[in-house]
Design goal:
The protein is mainly α. Helix content is about 85%, strand content about 0%. The relative contact order is 0.06.
Length: about 110
């Protein structure tokens, strides 16, 4: 992930994303640089407009969440039912724990008079 961050730093600062610059940024960050990964990243980013890709990436969650809500309505209902069941089980467990606590309190009262 640090390799991608280094490329983003270079892009933001207006520097060319090449092997030397990427290696320098990674070295400055204290990363043990693997040249094969640097070469692969530089080659992968060769024809990519990083600024445009970042803008598209930030826009995707907003559109994905609206589509997901419509498509995932049934899944949300099932999840809500599961949550209700878990809440009921926890409430029942707490009631059992409260009963046990009462017995423990009486024992302590007997200990300390």
């Amino acid at each position: 992930m640090e390799y991608v961050y280094a490329a983003l730093i270079l892009n933001e600062s207006g520097e060319e994303i090449n092997e030397e610059n990427l290696t320098n940024v990674l070295d400055a960050a204290g990363v043990d640089v693997e040249q094969s990964r640097v070469k692969a990243l530089v080659a992968a980013l060769e024809d990519v407009d990083i600024s445009e890709a970042v803008e598209e990436a930030t826009a995707v969650p907003a559109t994905a969440s609206t589509g997901g809500a419509a498509a995932g309505g049934a899944a949300d209902d099932a999840e809500a039912d599961d949550d209700e069941e878990e809440a009921e089980e926890e409430a029942a467990d707490e009631e059992d724990d409260d009963e046990d606590d009462g017995d423990a309190g009486e024992g302590l009262g007997e200990l300390f008079g």
